[in-house]
Structures are given as C-alpha cells and as structure tokens.
Amino acid sequence: MTVTTALPHAEAVSLADQQLASWLKQEGCDEPPPASDAPPPEPPGLAERLRLGERVLLDRDHGPLRGGPGAGRYDRRRLRTPAPHGTQQLTLTVATGADGSTWVRLEAETHSTGSGVRTPCRVPVPELARSLLPLLDAADGPAAVHTAPRVITAAEVDALIDELCDPERRLPTVVASVPVNLPVDHWVADVVGPLCHQLPGLATAYVLDPGARTGFNVALEYHSVYGGAVRTYLPEVDPASRLDGARHPVLARGRIEQDLRRAAGLLAREPRRLAADQPLPVPLAAVPVLRVPPPQLRPASGRAADSTVVHRSAAHPGADGAVVRAELAALAHEEQQDRAEQQARADELERVRHSLRLERRDRHDTRDGRDGRDAHEGRLRSGPRALTGRHCTTPGAGPALGPRFAAQPADPCGKPESFTELMVRMGEFTLLTFTGDQKSALALDELQRVGAGWARLAWDGLTALQEYAEAAVCGRAGGDFKQWCEHTPEGCHRFPPRKAVRGESRTVFSHTKWKRERMLPVPECVDASRRAFMGAHLRIGGGRTAPRLHYLDDCSGSGRIYVGYIGLHLTNTRTN
Q1: Residue-wise over 303-325: b if at least 16 C-beta within 10 A, else e?
Q2: CA quadruple 425, 429, 435, 438: dihedral, nearest 10
Q3: N- to C-terminal Cα distance for the chain?
Q4: Which of 11, 318, 540, 556 keeps 20 to 30 A from 495, CA to CA?
Q5: Global model pTM greater than 0.85
Q6: 246: DSSP letter
Q7: Smallest Cα–Cα separation from 493: which of 393, 383, 347?
Q8: What does the alpha-carbon distance between residue 103 and residue 179 come to, in Å, rounded to a whole number?
Q9: Is 67 helix (H, G, I), strand (E, B) or coil?
C-alpha cells in the first residue's frame, strides 16, 4: 500500500507507532519503548533491533533520504513474527521529500521455509492498514483512500469521473453496480462489502446507486458497468476511447454470486499486481536499504542491543587480538558489500518498474492509434515485451549455426507474466527439458512482490541457456554457461553473469540433507539412478535466499540441458 497523508511527518510516525504497539499488545507481545527514548544505535546508520517475544523482532531506523542534504527524511519499522511454515514480515515506511509531501508505504509478505514445494497462501491485508488509513486521512492524488466501499449518488457522479481520469491517480478504482430491484444497502452489506475485503490500501471502492448508475454509464459509454457487475478502473482512463475500455476488467454478477470468496480473490489480483509493479514515488525510492545489526550487536532479550561489542579475545584470553580485529574488519567489509548489493538490487527494481510503466504507456498510445478491435485484442494478448535474439549467430560460424539455428524474428508472444504461463511455454525451448516438480515454480506466482519480474528474469535465463545449448552442441560455445554470459556473442540474448552460478559451495555439497535437495530428476540416459546433482543455478530473484533455477548441462552427452528445479532458494547456510 502506497498513499499520501497531509499530516506532518512526526505525527504520522507517532500514529503508526501507536497502532503498531497496540496491535503487539493484543498479540501478547512486549510493547516497544518509544523511539525517542531509545539510545541511538552504534555504529550510526544501523537499525535498532528489539526482541518483543518468541521469534518477534522489531527493527527501527530513521535518517535522511538519499540525494544529499535537504532531500528529506524517513522513518521505518520492520516487524517479523512467526507464521505457519515461515515468517510474516511487515514493513512500514514514512518518507517526506524536499517538497514537503509525506508518503506512507506498508508492505506485507510471508517468507516460507523449506524447499518451496509448499504452496503459500495469499498474504492478507494487515489490520495495521485498516486502522491506519482513517487516522492518516490517507489519499491517492486528489481522492481519499477509505477502508470500505462508499455509495455514490447522482450528484457525485461527476466527481467520481474526475477521479477516474485524474493523471495523479496511482491506485485502481473499483466501481460496483447494483442489480435492478435490489436494495442498495443489502447488496452493499451482503455482496460488495465481503467482495472488497482484500482491497483496503490497494484500491478505492465505490457503489453506484440507481440514480448514479444511469449518469455514470451515459458519461462513460465505453467504460460502463451495470447489472450487479463490478469493474476495476486502472489509472489513466480515457473515456473517449472505445479501445481503452478493454483495459479495465469486469467481474460479472454471476461469477460473484457463484463463489463470493473466490471472486474477492480475483478482484484483488489486479490491485496487488499494480501495487507491486508501480514505480515508487521519489521520496520512497530515496529511502536507503535497511541495515540490521550484525550478530554481535543483536539483542538477547526484550531490550535493545547494548552498543558494547564483546570481542572474542575477552571470551578466550588466549586469542590473538590482531586476528580478532581482522575478523571483525572482514565482517564489516562483507556487511558493507551486502548492503551495496541490496541497494543496487533495489535501484534496479525501480528502473524496471519505470521501464514497464513507459512500455505500457507506449503500448496504450500505439494501440489507440490502430483501427479495429481485432488488432487491439491481439496486441493486448501478446504484450509489448517481444523477445529478441531468441536464436543467434556465434562468431566464426558463418551466417548461422545451421538451418535450425538461423536468426529468428522477435517472439510475438513476449515474455511470460507468471510462472504458470512460463511452465506452459517451456516447450518453446527445443534443447531444454524441465524434469522437476511444477508445484515449486507455480508457488512463486503467489510470492511475486516484484510482480512479473521473477518470471521474466527466469525466461531471460532460459532463453540464454537455449542459445548457449545451440552453440554448445556444435562445439562453438567456448566454455560453460558462466563464460557464455561473460562473453555473450553479438546478437544473442545477454543474461547477467553475476546471476549465473557454476555450483554450490563445498559446505552445501558435503551436507547430506542439502545435497539430497539438489539431487534432481534426469532421464535414465543421463544417470541410471534417474537423479543427478544440480549445483549450477541461476539467480532469478534478488538476495541470497530468493528464487533459483537449478540445471544440469549435458550438452556434451545427450545434447540437452535439464532444468530440475525452479522455486524458492533451497536450504543452505543463509536460508532462514
């Protein structure tokens, strides 16, 4: 959830802390001390970590925004609590930019443990969002963000249309109609209210009463809604465009009444996707990544960690002080590198979000310039992300590697938006074979905070593996896949070399359980046991515990690459 508030920065933070403390108290956890009473963390820049119960951790930090003096400031709270099969994480950020605008962002996610074969549930809207929205007087552009659907009368139709067409609107707007001859109050209480239960903070919801329905549908001839249906209006509505109407999905009354709970999940799908894909406002994008205290500074009780570091030389009098200092310096250097990597990933994500937004806008403009609904629907299905360089020519191979490997035009289907679509289209890679369990890959669709980013990155990796395999079976790859990524031939699809890993560490390989997780299915022609260790993998998400794609390069044997696993990071020393 990303909204603005007219409250001063300090007041917004104070309200957030009060609501968070109240919720923790209800859950039987210790209340955190006021942020102003806590000693500043040492060294400066680290988050203050509080242990408020069994597996309940609260990290608090604040400071200036990136961009130099005068850029603004932020306050952040990250709460981690136990959940079935994992950990729930709630991150609340309040950022005020140089122009004085204050933004509030609330992120809820579940970190699953294990190998990822367990299908996770959709993260529910946290109660903190429902309690904060009215207190903050939250807004999305000129419109108030409320927690429940609001009934619109005929006199309010013009204001609603202005809201739909406002260029500053970021959140989707859900508009529900009422069936003829049914009381508005009963329909709102029995149907629309439960239907919009998963929308607070993700969308604004309205219900057209009978008088408003007529005026609304006359004004929005190509974007009408009636008969008990519900329509989701995405940002940048063009009321004069017939083709634009197809962008805004409609949920029919029959589907709603057939299964109200399932319909609520379907209705929330597009707002969730948009919340993950939308570029962050400038103040929130300038918030630095969270710096958690290293292990020696973390608290062992409900109080904040003491700033005194107990060196190993004190615990072991015989230890060499110089060695200890060197180890601490190495840890500090590693922490600094991790932080830089995390910040680079966050910045890369923002660039991707901005790029996708411009892509969609260009697609929308181009589509509106075309005549015919058939052409529009075809472009809507294919999307703008055409896959170029699917097959390539390698140096020294002449015009092409042969008839099968001749350069092809851009793939009209584009990159998949989900792992469900990716698994369906695996057959497009003629030299790759997926041998694993699809459940682990499909489970990622429920975890994509970054939206379609994971699926598209996985597709990029598979495309690069296909091109590498085409060259490798002809003996022209010039090394393994890692080297291929480092020296990608001109015209081929480039995959980031840092995301291509040759193998697992010796620790993982020697750990029986961890090694067994990576013994993945292969055909009998590759190994008589029908299992092979797949240490080589691709990082298809940011971070050391993010999703991975494990594969076996058998181009020199059977002439294929076997993908044995796509899913959450398998167990190692850093998964939690």
Answers
A1: ebbeeeeeeeeeeeeeeeeeebe
A2: -20
A3: 26
A4: 556
A5: no
A6: G
A7: 393
A8: 38
A9: coil
